[in-house]
Structure formats: C-alpha cells, structure tokens
Design brief:
Chain A: One of its GO terms (molecular function) is kinase activity. The complex is a heterodimer of chains A (470) and B (168). Chain A has helices spanning 9-13, 22-26, 28-31, 36-45, 47-66, 72-87, 92-107, 117-131, 134-154, 164-242, 249-276, 282-286, 315-318, 321-335, 354-374, 424-434; strands spanning 289-295, 303-309, 339-345, 381-388, 392-400, 438-444, 447-455. Chain A has 470 residues and is α+β, with helices and mostly antiparallel strands. Chain A has two domains: 9-198, no CATH class; 282-470, 2-Layer Sandwich (Heat Shock Protein 90), CATH 3.30.565. With 168 residues, chain B is mainly alpha-helical. Chain B has two domains: 1-30; 37-167, no CATH class. The longest helix of chain B has 26 residues, at 3-28. The chains are: A alpha+beta (470), B mainly alpha (168). Chains A and B meet through helix 6 of A and helix 1 and helix 5 of B.
C-alpha cells in the first residue's frame, strides 16, 4: 500500500518506521510527540487532514444528534465510522478503509436513521486518493460506487436515488472526492520535486564554489606565498647582514619595513586560503558575503581579499579599527616619503555597524595604496579627512596625480611606478553601495578627488552603480 | 527487521476485525424496532397487542372510544399512557418521538407546522433520505402512525383538549 507514496516535507524529516499503514509509517514520530514543539509541528504539517476530518465529524455528529440511529447494527456501524473519522488524521488509510466498510455495511442494514454516511464516504475517498496509489484509489471509488448501486438495482427504499440518472450525480461526487485527494497529492509531489531540485542545485553550486575556491587557494598559495616568503627571508638575511651598524640605520629600517609587510601579507594570504577552503554554510548563503580589499601601502602590489560575514555586527571589536587603519596608512605613507595630512574628525556612533567601520578601515588602506600608485612624493601633498557622524562616515581624499602614473617607466631612473590592479576602488564601490552608501571619484586639473559616504546603519540593499570608476 | 512490525500490524488488524465481526453478530441478534413496518404496510397487516379481559375501567362519555383505542394499542407505551384515560401533552410528545423514530428508519421525519404566533397547526412529513415513491411513503406513514399508537393517542389527545376547552 505504501508503493508510490511520496512522503510530505514533515514526514520526510521524521524517522521512517515500517508499518502496515503508509502514513503511520512515514509519520511514526509524529504520532507520539514528546514535546509541544513536536505537537505544533505535527499540527502544522497535518492541518488540512485535521480540518477536513473535523468538518466530516461535525456534520456527522450534528446529524447523529438530530436523527440518532435506531437499529443497534446501524448504531454500531455509525459509531465505528465516527471513530474512524476521528482517527483519520493519524492513520488515514486504515481509517479510510474502515469508513468504506461501514458505509457498505450500512447499506445492508435497512435503517436510514443515524448520520448520513456520505460525509464519511467523501472523506474516506479523498484520504485514500491522497495517500494511496491510483489503482487503490480507483478500487476504493469502485467499491463505494458499486455498493451504492446495489440498492438501486434491488429497488429498496434505502437507495441514494430511485433512478440510475440520479445515481450519476452521486457517483460524480464520489469521483470528485477521490480526484480531489489525488490532485492534492500530485501538487504536493510537484512541490517536493521542485524543492529537491532546488536543494540539489544549491548543493551543486556549493560544490562548484568549493572547487573553485580550492583552485584559487592553491594558486594563491603557490604563487603569492612563495614569493612573499622569499621576500621576507631576503629582508631578514639583509637585516642579519647589516646587524647593528649605525651607518646603515636607514637601510635597516627599510629592510625591517619590507620584512614586516611581507610577513603581514603572508598572514593575510594564509587567512584567505583558510576561508576559501571552508565549505559554504547555510548562514553564509543567507547573509550577504562581501569581499573587501585591503592593500598594503608598502608593497603596493599585493591586494588580498577578505571574506567577511556581513551579518557580523561586532561594533566593539571594530571600534578602534578605523583609528588603527588611519594610523597605519599615515605611517606607511610617511615611511615611503609621502607628505600630507590624514585626520579623523568627530566620534564614531556607539551603534555604528561593524561592517561600516570595517569597510571604512579597508577603504583607508586602499586610498593609501592608491596614493603610492598614482602620486609621487615630490609633486605635492595628499589630504585625507574622515568625518565620523551619527548617520554616516564620510571620507574625502585629494592628491595630485603624477604625470607617469600607472605607466611602467622602465627607461627612467626613477623607481618604477606600481602597476595598478584597477579593481580595488570598483570593489569598494560595490560594497559601499550594498551598504547603502556611495563612493565617487574624479580627476580634475591634475588632482585626484575621492569622496565616500558609508551609512552607520547599512541597509544591505542592492543599489545601482553610481559615480565614475577608478 | 521490517517483517516484525508488519506481522504485528497484521495480527492487530485480524484481532480488530474479529472483535468487530463478533460485535456485529451479537448486535444483529438485538431487536430491530420498526423493522416490520414496511412489510406490514405492504400486506396491510398489523400486530396489535393481544386483547384481554383485563383493561382499565374507563368512565365518561368517551369510555367506548378509550376502550376501542386500548384494544388497538400496539405498544406497551401506548397502553401505559391510556391507563388513566387521559393523554397529556408530555405523553403525546413521547408517542410522537416513537412515531418519528419509526419514520426515521425509512428516511422520513415528521415536522410540526406552526402559525405566525408559534402555535402548532398541524404537521407534515419530510423525506430526509432514501428513494421511496409517494405511495410507499404514504403507506409507511400510516403504518408508523398505527404501530407507534400515534394515530389513536393523537385523536384522543385532541378530544381531551376539546373537552378541557369546553369545561373552561
């Protein structure tokens, strides 16, 4: 009897217990709920069964109270029918067949008193149509229809109709009840197939993402990690060679700087590799995964991506992050010989979102990196002001643009300009727009101007692209 | 592992079916009131209670009517009502209930017709279920009236009511 039955969503999660009755089998746990939550879950998943059983029960009991059964046999069969209606949400198929048996049996008891058996018959046919295979449902339909035709053929007074034409209506009603149950099952099966397809698609996407991330992690590790390790080792060797020689203080500072930056970026890369190799979780899917770019002003070539969970609102852990990022950017620029001002005005709001502060700090790093790429120390000074407000964090930065910015000047004596990646500000713009803010850049009269506004309470909505590209 | 619960369920179903079958057999042996109404209606027979020399001493102008009714009573309920020579409204309601029970076996119900003030002005028979022809229905109604003693007692109740109205 269970062949061809597709368990519904609630039943799928329940433990599968082999049983005679299909529904008992699939909802074995739900029959004996141990807690309120299980009862509520069972009620939610079976509310329609309960509703139609309650309707049939109410109609039957009302008729019983108005016209009680007179014959004892009629009383017995009517009572069994009522019990089966009550049990139908729990053991639907067994109850359905018990109802059909009582309906047929009442035809052989020449007593029309008592509740109308048709309510229970419609319920039973709908239940069997829903829970059983098509042949079984058709068998139930034929059983009821043929049984109801017997009194018509025998011309007894308990026939549903005195004529065969009248029986067509009743048989139509029986067929509709059965088809109703079957159509509900087909709809449920369709929904389940769609849901399963979505789950499969999601798993496939996760698998593809994980494979891609693994390839990315491997490539980053093979290329960047090796080179950075070599840079760090070289710097450390030079530091050992220089030793405490007072005449080479400047060189020692430079090598120390190179070593620190290389180790810092190496840590970041290892962190990114760890993140890439983590399987995608449901929470990560649900929340917006943002990619932020941090740049190291000293190397200028390494941009690392941090995968951040946008749902992480840890304002306390980020409270000093902006000031720290500003200090680091200022120190790096100063070390590389860039002159200018970088100041923070105002106080950050207590309820400022963590991702806002994180993004502002990351943007400062990118701004510092861009200054090293697009500006020469001898052509002027940069100016960067961060204004902390109650609703927004505003960052305004200007700097003169070097004439050979972005070009590889291999034929000059000057230090070669760093090749820009070209995606840094674009990714920041995308992130800021997702947070509900804006990032605009422009170049006027040889000056680079950047303006960013990041709301302290991100809306996390998609916004159209604004402003010019970097 | 799978067969054990299946076998247990089969045994449960067999036991339940056996219990129901025994209950059906035992219940079938119980009396089925009004079951012979249809056959009696078809052949015109009627099984009144046996007439004996023991009957209440009816007095008054309607004593012969009461005696005639007593001899035509079909139920012990009717004779117990008639014992005091009067048919009260409550007693008539009891008989009406029995009459309705007889009708309900055949898918019919007696419905009281009331006027605008709510007073009863008669009754009609409503078919609830079944497929009786008009002729069958009429004969069943007559037979139920006879076998439930409603026919005699309702006429006596009307007589009593008229007598009460005259005395007032």
């Amino acid at each position: 009897m269970s062949r061809g039955k597709t368990p519904n969503a609630a039943e799928t999660t329940a433990a599968q217990t082999p049983s005679h009755d299909g529904i008992m089998q699939s909802s074995g746990d739900s029959r004996c709920p141990t807690g309120t939550s299980q009862i509520i879950r069972w009620l939610r998943s079976h509310w329609f069964r309960i509703a139609i059983a309650a309707f049939a029960l109410a109609a039957t009991l009302v008729e019983w109270s108005v016209i009680p059964p007179i014959y004892p046999l009629n009383f017995l069969f009517s009572g069994l029918s009522v019990i089966a209606i009550i049990l139908s949400p729990f053991i639907p198929r067994t109850s359905g067949w018990v109802i059909i048996i009582t309906v047929v049996a009442r035809l052989f008891v020449l007593d029309l008193s008592g509740p109308n058996p048709l309510w229970a018959a419609y319920l039973a046919l709908a239940i069997i149509g829903y829970d059983s295979t098509i042949p079984v449902a058709i068998a139930a339909l034929l059983t009821v229809a043929i049984a109801e035709c017997v009194p018509v053929a025998l011309n007894t007074f308990n026939a549903l109709s005195a004529t065969w034409i009248g029986m067509v209506n009743y048989i139509g009603m029986f067929t509709l009840a059965t088809m109703g149950g079957m159509s509900f099952r087909w709809r449920k099966q369709r929904d389940e197939i769609r849901e399963q397809a979505m789950v499969l698609e999601r798993k496939q996407w996760q698998l593809d993402t994980l494979q891609r991330n693994t390839r990315l992690a491997s490539r980053i590790h093979d290329s960047a990690s090796g080179g950075l390790s070599y840079i760090a080792l070289t710097a450390q060797r030079e530091l050992r060679r220089i030793g405490d020689d007072a005449s080479q203080t400047s060189a020692r500072q430079d090598w120390q700087f190179v070593n620190d930056q290389a180790l810092s970026v190496l840590d970041e890369i290892h962190h990114v590799i760890d993140l890439l190799e983590q399987p995608q979780t449901e929470s990560a899917n649900a929340s917006a995964v943002t990619f932020t770019v941090t740049s190291t002003a000293s190397s200028g070539t390494a941009s690392t991506m941090h995968v951040l969970d946008a749902a992480a609102h840890h304002a306390s852990s980020h409270s000093n992050e902006l000031h720290l990022a500003a200090d680091q950017a200022k120190a790096k620029l100063q070390h590389l010989g860039f002159q200018g001002t970088l100041e923070i005005r105002g106080e950050i709001a207590d309820d400022c979102a963590g991702e806002t502060q994180q993004e502002a700090a990351n943007l400062l790093g990118e701004i510092a990196a861009n200054i090293t790429r697009h500006m020469a120390p001898e052509i002027g000074e940069y100016c960067c002001a961060i204004t902390l407000g109650g609703n927004d964090i505003e960052i305004m930065e200007t700097n003169p643009i070097a004439a050979n910015a972005g070009k590889n000047n291999d034929d000059t004596d000057a230090a070669p300009m760093l090749k820009p990646h070209g995606k840094g500000l674009a990714m920041h713009r995308s992130i800021i727009q997702q947070l509900g803010g804006e990032l605009n850049t422009t170049a006027e009269d040889g000056d680079w101007i950047l303006y960013a506004r990041i709301p302290t309470h991100p809306s996390m909505s998609e916004h159209p692209q604004q402003g010019s590209t970097s | 592992m799978i067969r054990i619960p299946h076998r247990r369920n089969v045994i449960t179903v067999i036991i339940l079916a056996s219990v129901i079958a025994i209950a059906v057999l035992l219940t079938a042996l119980l009396p089925q009131p009004w079951s012979d109404v249809a056959s009696n209606a078809s052949n015109g027979s009627s099984s009144a209670l046996p007439t004996t020399s023991e009957h209440p001493e009816f007095t008054g102008p309607h004593k012969y009517e009461l005696l005639n009714a007593w001899n035509n009573m079909h139920t012990e309920l009717g004779r117990s009502i008639l014992e005091d020579g009067k048919v009260s409204a409550d007693e008539l309601a009891q008989v009406h209930k029995a009459y309705n029970e007889c009708l309900s076996v055949y898918g019919l119900q007696a419905k009281t017709i009331t006027d605008s003030s709510g007073a009863s002005i008669g009754e009609t028979i409503v078919p609830i279920r079944g497929s009786m022809s008009g002729e069958q229905r009429t004969s069943i109604i007559d037979q139920c009236q006879t076998e439930s003693d409603y026919r005699w007692l309702t006429s006596l109740a009307e007589t009593d009511q008229g007598r009460d109205n005259q005395s007032e």
